[in-house]
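REVIEWER CHECKLIST
Item 1: Sequence provided? yes
Item 2: Single chain? yes
Item 3: Sequence as submitted:
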Amino acid sequence: MNSYRAGFACLVGRPNAGKSTLTNALVGQKVAITSSKPQTTRHTIRGIATTPEAQLILVDTPGLHKPRTLLGQRLNDVVRETLMDVDVIGFCLPCDQRIGPGDQFIAAELAELRRGRKRPVVALATKSDTVDRDRLAQHLVAIDQLGDWQEIVPCSATGGDQVETVLSVLMKYLPESPKLYPDGVLTDEPDDVMVAELVREAALEGVRDELPHSIAVVVDEMLPREGRPADRPLMDVRVNIFVERSSQKAIIIGRGGSRLRDVGTRARTAIEELLGQKVFLDLHVKIAKDWQRDPNQLSKLGF
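Item 4: Structure as written out by the authors:
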């Protein structure tokens, strides 16, 4: 009888490589926010996938990129620190984009890391459902030429193709260990962090390219409404959305507050699913001028 395995895996890749979507698919539930905008992930969200043979704790990271702001530098530092602490790394290389300088930058970082600490790296050809077989074959050859990988696995998180294979391959490289989390636990993120992420995901939908980097979300308070019947509890959730300029505030709020209402509706549905109860969501949009470049503001906003 084989011993149980448990440990940590990290998915890396340039921004918008499908890391968060794959994390959610591997865990089987939404634990990392996804968006068509790059640089969606700012916190390392841990998703936990448990099988009878192994337990994989997935640490989701921001995309490694050439930083333009202090926030960007801090995000890259987060990724590098995370890579030093995990048992196996999944390098996401989306099939719908050719291998480029961003991928070469990450491949070089991984090669450098492996010189110091032998970390197995599995190359994952994500978004395989977006290309035909010829293009997929070309992409797999390009990945093979990019570096020295333990394995190369094509997969599609949205289509569910080979997700189980990715899970079993990553689990194979975990150390022998008892379970690190009880059955049924899918993430170790506190509820307020997950709520903030869900509001930010809703706020990112459909906004212009320059805005995503400028949005930060902080939960001010989460309190059960007093005097509610035991079978119909209500959670009051007050959330502040921070942007850098008044023009951005106007975009988030929309004409007559229409956009903010849409954000609230979308976020509330996701939060109620997360918390398993009805929620009264109170959103406020505030300006924190140039917070991405201000060390004090970054610290206040949790970066």
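Item 5: Key structural point noted by reviewer: The longest helix spans residues 258-275.
Item 6: Recommendation: ____
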